[in-house]
């Protein structure tokens, strides 16, 4: 699994918003400046997050973006899946049921499935609060 720039930026944006009060709308320009991301690219990421209902957006004066849940209620897996579309390490795991014509005889499929489960379990076990509160995430140091 290779996390794209979009996924990394989405995670950075969510951490940035988590550092602000949930009552405060943070302007796009402020987020862009704090994170060193172009406003145009950032807007495309925020649109995805807003349409998915994980953040609130408000247009106009005093507008911006904010979290609509506590940071502990957001998982890294949820954010990356929204930005990336999938977290699967191989494309044949993108569909349920697996539509690969070789799935029934593939000797590597169980290994890929286990890796997919490990990745998913780990990323869904890490919250935004974990990223803000500590440099230790789960049993791993980052």
Which features would summarize this protein structure in a list?
142 residues, mainly alpha, Arc Repressor Mutant, subunit A, two-stranded antiparallel sheet, 6 helices
Plain-language structure description:
This protein is mainly alpha-helical and 142 residues long. 47% of the residues lie in helices and 8% in strands. The protein is built from 6 helices and 4 strands.
CATH topology description: Arc Repressor Mutant, subunit A
- Radius of gyration from the CA trace? 17 Å
In N-to-C order, the SSE pattern is: HHHEEHHHEE
As a percent range, the share of helical residues equals 40-55%
Please identify which CATH superfamily we are dealing with: Winged helix-like DNA-binding domain superfamily/Winged helix DNA-binding domain
Question: What percent of residues are in strands?
Answer: 5-15%
Overall mean confidence score, pLDDT: 90
| Overall number of strands | 4
């Amino acid at each position: 699994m290779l996390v794209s720039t979009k996924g990394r930026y989405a995670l950075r944006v969510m951490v940035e918003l988590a550092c602000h009060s949930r009552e405060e709308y943070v302007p796009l320009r402020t987020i862009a400046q704090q994170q060193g991301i172009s406003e145009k690219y950032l807007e495309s990421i925020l649109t995805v997050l807003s349409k998915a209902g994980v953040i609130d957006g408000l247009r106009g004066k005093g507008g911006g973006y904010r979290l609509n849940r506590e940071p502990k209620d957001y998982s890294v897996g949820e954010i990356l899946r929204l930005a990336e579309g999938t977290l699967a390490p191989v494309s044949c795991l993108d569909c349920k049921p697996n539509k690969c014509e070789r799935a029934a005889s593939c000797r590597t499929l169980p290994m890929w499935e286990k890796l997919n489960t490990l990745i998913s379990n780990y990323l869904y076990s890490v919250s935004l609060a974990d990223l803000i509160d500590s440099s230790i995430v789960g049993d791993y140091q980052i």
